[in-house]
């Protein structure tokens, strides 16, 4: 079995918890509060900025053009395509996207980006890929699950979001990251593979926690007002 499939299998428990989370199920039923959607968009906009920084660090550690090309393609997707699912949520709640940008991250999203940046700076390309992979992989499977279960048509408020993540392009972006991770895993020591497994699992847990953060509209318990 490939290393990426080992990672996927040993995190089946967390993937299932993500599919059944009330925010994710709410995308399927079309029923989520406007406040939770706005909270999600505010945090995700900043999260995606940090995600591109992680790809930037990966580019700086790349030793060949094939890897640079792969990370560049992922940045292009985040920059130019991921605005579509965000716009779907924004249109639904009737708030312009621009009004939800530039907010400080709540604790869980802050934890998630710092976890990825830690592996970006401390690890090699294999470890960075392991930390990044749950991000497209969980969204691809959420899209596929919601498409199969709810079969949204054009009257469904989140049909564009569901179709976006269930699409072939997200599948191929995930597959290419998996096969690159498998290449690096073949050369990696047992210790390095241990760090990859740890990074992957924590990102899965943080994907779950991110949905929960948006659903509960998590804030810092004290000192929320910015100090300038
Ligand atoms: C918290 C959070 N996790 C995952 C995604 C989805 N996503 C982010 S980047 C990317 C492309 C992979 O390079 C995909 C599919 C999101 N928007 N927010």
UniProtKB/TrEMBL annotation:
Q: Which InterPro entries match?
A: Haem_Oase-like_multi-hlx (IPR016084), Thiaminase-2/PQQC (IPR004305), Thiaminase_II (IPR027574), Thiamine_Salvage_TenA (IPR050967)
- Keyword Hydrolase (UniProt): yes
**CDD domains per the UniProt record, alphabetical:** TenA_C_SaTenA-like
Task: Quickly give the catalysed reaction.
Answer: 4-amino-5-aminomethyl-2-methylpyrimidine + H2O = 4-amino-5-hydroxymethyl-2-methylpyrimidine + NH4(+); thiamine + H2O = 5-(2-hydroxyethyl)-4-methylthiazole + 4-amino-5-hydroxymethyl-2-methylpyrimidine + H(+)
Offer an example of a GO molecular function term for this protein.
thiaminase activity
Q: Give the Thiaminase-2/PQQC domain ranges.
A: 15-216
What UniProt keywords apply to this chain's record, in alphabetical order?
A: Hydrolase, Thiamine biosynthesis
EC main class here is: hydrolase
Pathway(s) where this gene product acts: Cofactor biosynthesis; thiamine diphosphate biosynthesis
Q: Name the job this protein performs.
A: Catalyzes an amino-pyrimidine hydrolysis reaction at the C5' of the pyrimidine moiety of thiamine compounds, a reaction that is part of a thiamine salvage pathway.
Assembly state and interactors?
Homotetramer.
- Family from the record: Belongs to the TenA family.
> This chain belongs to which protein, by name?
Aminopyrimidine aminohydrolase
